[in-house]
Amino acid sequence: MKRFRRHGHESHRDKLKQELFQFNKTVEHGFPHQPSALSYSPSLELLAIGTRSGAIKLYGAPGVEFMGLHDENAAVTQVHFLPNQVELVTLLDDNSLHMWTLRAHQGLSELLEIGRFTLTGPPGAPPSVTRVTAVLAHSSGELLLLGTEGGHVFIVEVPGFRELEERNISLDQMASRNLEHVEALQENPVNPDQVVIGYGRGLVVIWDLVKQCALQHIPATQQLESVWWTEDGQHILSSHSDGSYCRWIVGEGDVNEDEKSDIPYGHFPCKAISKITCRLIICYTFIFEYTELNLTLCVHVGHPSALVVLVEEELVVIDLQTDGWPVIQTPYLVPLHSSAITCSHHVSAIPLKLWERVTAAGSLQKTHYSKKPWPITGGQNLAPDPPQRDLLLTGHEDGTVRFWDASGVCLNPMYKLSTAGVFHTDADPNDNMNSGSEGEWPPFRKVGCFDPYSDDPRLGIQKIHLCKYSGYLTVAGTAGQILVLELNDEAAEQTVEAKIVDLLQGQEGFRWKGHTRLDMREEPVLSPPGFQPFCLVQCQPPAVVTALTLHSEWKLVAFGTSHGFGLFDYQQKNTVFVKCTLNPSDQLAMEGPLSRVKSIKKSLRQSFRRIRRSRVSLRKHHINNAAKTTLFKSAELAEMELAPVQRKIEARSSDDSFTGLVRTLYFADTFLSDSAHNTPSLWAGTNGGCVFAYMLRLPNVEHRADEPVTAQQAKEIQLMHRAPVVGIVILDGHGVPLPEPLEVAHDLARSPDMHGLHHLLVISEEQFKVFTLPKVSAKMKLKLTALDGSRVRRAGVAWFGSNRSEDYCESGLVVLTNQGDLHVVSLPNVKMQVHYPCIRREDVSGIASCVFTKHGQGFYLISPSEFERFSLSTRHVVEPRSLVEVPLYSASSNQCSSQPDGVTRYPHSRRVMEHALLNDESEYLRDRCNKAIVSCTRPLFGSKKLLQLY
């Protein structure tokens, strides 16, 4: 009977786990790392971006996103949509072609790979014969023209990737054989039987696909970059490597010279015009800060209402219909890494009032953006409205904190806070890329927001804590600075009061060898509407702040470094107490993470300024690599201080380095002296496995501004194995974690049970241990570390709601290990619930960047510019849910074209209709498709039967 009951209990527990927990990687936020290809579908109104890692990403209206990943570890070099279809072709740098489709399944579209192909040449032929350099997706939707490095053009039938050898175009059929590679392929917009072939040497040939002969030769003298056939079919535009473009008349005979040649910037040195259209000439009239311009790719949308420019580190959309060509703010693909991300902080369920105030402050920072709506509108966003408002705050190396709307699929920028204005830095206020001399030519204008240049690496933000109820914010930096800010709807000028806190407390024999602290501005600081600093705490020595927490109800902020921790009263602007945790044998703690790279940083900044002042062409690639190397080196050194090297699973010596480094701080109202009287307290955990508890005495509310806050050390716990303490949680009499400050006062949480015994949960790198309070006697523990050498890297409390019952909810401890695994541990009995692999164990930066939400989701950096979002909850899942329909009728579908052979061709091929039949269950649409197929004449090169398509 006992066994039966136990089995029944386990079945119930397993069923409950299925209702509460489910791991999914849901969406990627940010800018794709190392983009390499761009394409736009006018009929679908979708944008496609390929990357060097083999990813393909599609974007439409905000919330419409798709992602695919090639099995091959190769870069995507080209992306091409098949006209008026939901299919696209990608070309990789291993010379393989891949066919993708957006297939409907249960009312939602999925991006699926449906075929792959590699050109094969005759036996013994060099690889250049079949190395693809240009791709043209024919308007029939059934052909791909593939230009190669050897100058040949191969014609392939899709989606089956069958080569039509009899229609291939070889160099033997051209007037000259020394033409180099095929640079460009374009179709005649009024006659799909004709295509233009552009060769690298400059020759342009108009070819008839039906007659299989050249109709016209256009001998350009400069190296060719791109070609464009005008909409009336009467002219061809060509752009060249010397910055010139030419207009050619399309006729029956060969052309001896161009009708019109022009160099937009006269005879001044100019880069090649890499893209040209009949309405727009794209050369480098814009300056993109610290970007490899050679990777610039352009498309235009809306005839042309906007210019979309993809550069190495950002996507810029320029409004071409408004004077001055302002930039349109992107609802997605925002470069999160405009300055390198150094930390992140997530706040769930933001109150509406705070949300509106932050939004209002952010809108004042966006007046330079265009008022036009986002021009890429393809697909339907079918995701439900977010159930709550969530904020993701990211700290950056330049001293900024950026607020992001993390409620839904799109990570939207809301507001940017800069802390640099509080300090004196070595930046030159007159050093600006836009400050060119009057009448300077060519007239360059800086656009985009990516700028990794940092005035001073000491400004870097390391810790953030926001109270969503009071509007108080505290941020801490690399040089031991802690700023306390409050939200103000009006601009204000005030002096920021500074307090120096000596964490060494006068101990002799220690000399700080790291960087100096930042110089505080003594004069009043003018702050725009938003979060405004009013108090500064400066730690001495100025080491990286490793722990930070804020209690806005008590008006207290606690902070910790590698030397100790302290408590500050920001209402009275007084230090309450300081505790030195430095081990006398720990000499490494006296060296700052920036001391070894400071000279490199200074030299790099000086080099940037010299380059800026001279208007010489920037060698972006080498500078960018040097900047990245320096940034990563700084991050590695900082991480060395924050996360010590892993050790074997054994008792640790007190002589280990960084044992005094403070890893976590926690405020709680609990029982410390006896079980009858609860009191405010502060808890601190160190790298050496030590936990300190301080009892706090707060004056009554009416005397809070006059009487001082006092503190007394009440407890000290030393873990047996001296494993670093990464988290502290106190559970009330019901085993529920204590609510956040002011949460109960706003009726958003139940009051904690103060009648039963409280429990202290200490989370170390190796185990979870529960102690009773106030006696601090061990009650239970769960050891995480086993033979695989797992270590806890991140831990946080989350609430998991059932997906079947709205009323049922459980609290749990979410844990990330150094193996990249996620665990959920039940509370208060600390039992392992579920375990999922999430991040590659080799991805140290991804593991270090992970942040959890209060409802079972999380974020981590998969690249310097992208967050991966995941969910452990069945109820709280944020993921794209999109539908892209087959474009049965486009803007030009009412215009039939009569071809020379007398056949009337319609803009949509038979296969478009067949695809719609296979992907839509609507009887109405099926009827429309059947009628369209019957009325449609046979396309140019024939259509395959329905069963042969898929």
UniProtKB/TrEMBL annotation:
Keyword flag Hydrolase: no
InterPro entries named among the record's database cross-references: Lethal2_giant, LLGL2, WD40/YVTN_repeat-like_dom_sf, WD40_repeat_dom_sf, WD40_rpt
Protein name according to UniProt: LLGL scribble cell polarity complex component 2
Entry annotated with the keyword ATP-binding: no
One cellular component term from this protein's GO annotations in UniProt: cortical actin cytoskeleton
Gene that encodes the chain: llgl2
PANTHER family attached to this UniProt entry: LETHAL 2 GIANT LARVAE PROTEIN, LLGL SCRIBBLE CELL POLARITY COMPLEX COMPONENT 2
Keywords: Cell cycle, Cytoplasm, Exocytosis, Phosphoprotein, Repeat, WD repeat
Biological process per Gene Ontology, one example term: cortical actin cytoskeleton organization
GO molecular function (one): myosin II binding
Lineage of the organism: Eukaryota, Metazoa, Chordata, Craniata, Vertebrata
UniProt WD repeat ranges: 69-110, 387-405
Compartment(s) where it occurs, according to its Swiss-Prot or TrEMBL record: Cytoplasm
Domain (Lethal giant larvae homologue): residue spans on this chain: 298-326
PROSITE patterns: WD_REPEATS_2 (PS50082)
Membership in a protein family: Belongs to the WD repeat L(2)GL family.
Organism of derivation: Takifugu rubripes
Domain of life: Eukaryota
Main location: cytoplasm
